[in-house]
Amino acid sequence: PRCHGCHPALTLPPQTEPNVARVGRVASRLCQELRLARPAVCQQAVELFQRDVVTAWARSVLRPGEACGLLLGQRCGHWDIMADWNVTMPGTPKPPVRPPVPPPPGAPVEHILFLTDLHWDRQYQPGSAVACPDPLCCRGEPLGGPGGAGFWGSYGKCDLPLHTIEALLEHAVGTVANGSLASSRPVVGSWQ
């Protein structure tokens, strides 16, 4: 049953549904019918990523059977990651390789700390469930007893508590002169 909605949904090209919100509603309904997540998670995750998904869908070279196989597994279509791909390279010749030139002795030294993709969760709760059906766990009431989310964070489907990032930055201030912070996406659980 999971496959039945995938092929028809992907057969209809996104150009016939120019309204991104309408495509989002279809994707949210499909997510719920396929039971990929709870209805609230489906709806809010689709709202967050619908523009990116529609753009990727419109530019995709995958046929519906390949996309369904990629998204839902081999029972829903054939997707072979090892298949041959043709990549046309431009005719422009590569520039010559120039080996790097090290700085002269005694040149000033700059220390840079570059942090990227720090995912923090404002709803992180130490002691809460590390495993849950949602895309992001370590939230909610503490379980009481061992096995819950750690104070500084936990592996699995958990982002970091704010106090871990604050401690990291406080430590970095004392050890690194210059730093940069970058992030490519909102928090994974930003649907809540």
From TrEMBL:
PANTHER family: SPHINGOMYELIN PHOSPHODIESTERASE
GO CC aspect terms: extracellular space; lysosome; membrane
Alphabetized UniProt keyword annotations: Disulfide bond, Glycoprotein, Hydrolase
GO biological process assignments: ceramide biosynthetic process; sphingomyelin catabolic process
Protein name per UniProt: ASM phosphodiesterase
An annotated Gene Ontology molecular function: acid sphingomyelin phosphodiesterase activity
Saposin B-type domain boundaries: 1-80
